[in-house]
Amino acid sequence: MYLRPIKVIFVSCLISVFLWVLTTPAVALTQIRLFDISYNDCPPELAEGAVISSGSAAAKCFIVTGKAENATYKTVYDADIFGRIYDANNDSVLQNRTRLGSIAEIPPGISDFELRISVPANQPTPLKLKQFKAAGFSGQVRK
Question: Which of 16, 41, 32 is nearest to 68 (CA)?
Fold first, then answer.
C-alpha cells in the first residue's frame, strides 16, 4: 500500500528525466548584423522588362550588396532581410514593406550577400538604404 505512491513518483521522475534529455533543441531566431550596404544598377539582362508589383508601371532594377555578420558558431538558414529604402526626396520606395528578401544560408563569421530590388522608374535616385538587418534560424526550417 505504501509502495504504490513511491512507484508512481519514481516513474514520473524517470519519465521527466528521459523527456528532458531526449528533447531536441529549439530552433530559435538568430539576429544577423548587416553592414557596408550599397547598391548598383542591375545588369541589362536582369533589368529588361522590369515592372513593379502592380505589374503596370515601369521599374528600375538594382542590386543591393553588403556584408552579413553571423556572430554565432552555427550556420543560419533562411534569414529574412529587413530594411527601409528611400529615394532622393526621402519618400519610401517600397511602401508598407520592410521585408526585402532573404539569404538562404549564412555561415559563421562575415560573408557577402546581394539582393535584387525593383523600384518604380519615377522615383529619383540616389537611393538611401537604412535600418538593414536580418534574422534567420539555426536549423533548416524549409526543405
Answer: 32
